[in-house]
What we know:
Elements: H1 3-8, E1 9-11, E2 27-33, H2 41-52, E3 55-61, H3 63-66, E4 76-79, E5 82-86, E6 92-97, E7 103-110, H4 116-129, E8 134-143, E9 153-157, H5 160-163, H6 179-189, E10 193-202, H7 211-225, H8 232-250, H9 253-276, H10 291-315
Parallel strand pairs: 2-7, 2-8, 8-10
Antiparallel strand pairs: 1-3, 3-6, 4-5, 6-7, 9-10
Helix pairs in contact: 2-7, 4-6, 7-8
Protein name: PAC2 family protein
Pfam family, one: PAC2
InterPro entries: Proteasome_assmbl_chaperone_2 (IPR019151), PSMG2_sf (IPR038389), Rv2714-like (IPR008492)
Amino acid sequence: MQDNERRMYDLEYPAPEVGSDTTGGPTLIVALQGYADAGHAVESSADHLLAALDSRPVASFNNDELIDYRSRRPAVTMDNHRITGMESLNLGIRVLRDTEGRSFLLLSGPEPDLRWEAFTEAVADLAEKFGVENTICLYSAPMAVPHTRPLVVSAHSNTPALVNSMFTYDSKVVLPGSASMMIERVLHKRGRNVAGFTAHVPHYLAASPYPAATHELLDAVARASGLSFPLRAIEHDMTRVAGQLAEQVNDSAEIQQVVHHLEIQFDEELERYRAKHPKAMLSGEHNVPSGDEIGEEFERFLAALDSTDQDNASEDVGGPRELPEQTDPEDIYPEDLEDEDPADEASDPEDIYPEDLEDEDPADDR
């Protein structure tokens, strides 16, 4: 390791075990704060994983080499006319184990202000050192989409297996750069598998914590990597925020109109995209079996049923069978069923910012 690399980061000693329990190497998740984090989805994803899963430090980066403290001033706590604490800007890589005991790596903390090239080369060196098979960088962007439709997570990658049925961009796009994107570029040049996942957050909710974006980012990572994450606490937050949004939307006819317009636009864009990409799936559709899978399962059911009938026939040769007792049709129909009122369609423009949201402790999932 060269001198500038020694100043860039320190390795934990003794080094924790990082090896993956699968045939390939571990997955590296990159969740840097400060860029493309609408709904605080990227920061919340890292915080949730660190709080809900066991972890150990692997490498700690030197903040004095990477952080401009004047542009990112840490919060200081003063108690009884004395300074008692200061916010820690921890930028580093930790090894975690998912709910099935599989190891993976997480790079989290503030996006560096300085020395991006040296930083990204150091991250790539560490990825090679620990045999990382796939690297997934997380992003979250404000988009003109309604919160009443499934949240889209789009993907870009040099490895088709990491994208699979996710939504992708077909056109050429020019974006402001970031340290995470530079990590992608360096790893791609080294021939490593890398992908970026971006949650599409309703633009009117971009400044507030939006648990649905956090949930969908982590769910997308889990499906691409084969890891298993505890997401129950986030799902509770999603239900709570959805209720708050519904209340605020129902109080404003103007907001309802704006959301309805966004819904029409979303549905039209989705129809056009799926005409070109029929295999693309939204949230909640990945567990729905395909037509071929349903057909195969039905054939297995019929085969098993035929086998059972043959076994019963061989045991029951010639004997009279008693007919099953018939049921009175009136007993089949329960009375006084009360239909639930369909949920009012939620809406939202600039006035819908759920305030004072109290996030549940993700450690409850452990």
